[in-house]
Amino acid sequence: MPRHKGEVEASVKYAQNNALAGRKFTSLTEQNLHLRQWKSTVADTRLHGIRRQQVGRVFAEIERAALRPLPPSLFPNFAEAPHTVHRGGHVELLKVYYSVPPEYVGLRVRFPKQPSTVLPLPPSGKSAPAPTASRFY
């Protein structure tokens, strides 16, 4: 099981340079079919460069048992809410004040309605994302 960033990145690079290199697909479905076939006939049957064991067999016998079930929700769901930036350069969100860039004073910015994630989204018409809001007490 990969434990280091380099091992994970090497796997991605291997797939890009072998399964996808020089190929064009007309649809995502076509690409997925090709990748499934490539995985079962090429990637899973190869010997790992460092471990010298067949990749598919190691996954089936060792790594699959270490996997945990996926969480019920893959991504947190939230709704965006518009807030006006006050003269002091802050926005009140759930009774907490967050500072935002001074150029947003008087404008309406959008915030995700989720207390664990506070990231002001830029006012409409601005292309660059707003910096992360910082909480002050």
Describe how the helices and strands are arranged.
Elements: H1 5-18, H2 28-43, H3 55-66, E1 80-84, E2 90-93, E3 96-99, E4 108-112, E5 134-135
Short description:
By secondary structure, the protein is an alpha+beta fold.
Number of helical segments with 4 or more residues: 3
| Proportion of helical residues | 25-40%
- Characterize the main sheet: 3 strands, antiparallel
Total strand count, please? 5
Strand order in the largest sheet: 2-3-5
Span between termini = 44 Å
- The arrangement of helices and strands along the chain is HHHEEEEE
- Provide the low-confidence segments as ranges: 127-137
Shape: elongated
Our estimate of the beta-strand percent is 5-15%
Rg over C-alpha atoms, rounded to the nearest angstrom: 23 Å
Mean pLDDT: 77
Structural class: alpha+beta
Could you characterize the architecture of this molecule?
Helices cover 31% and strands 15% of the residues. It has 137 residues and is α+β, with helices and mostly antiparallel strands. The strands form two sheets. A three-stranded antiparallel sheet has the order 2-3-5, with no helix packed on it. The longest helix has 16 residues, at 28-43. The protein starts with a helix and ends with a strand. The model is unreliable at 127-137 (pLDDT under 50).
Keywords:
single chain, 137 residues, alpha+beta, three-stranded antiparallel beta sheet, two-stranded antiparallel sheet, 3 helices, 5 strands, elongated, disordered C terminus
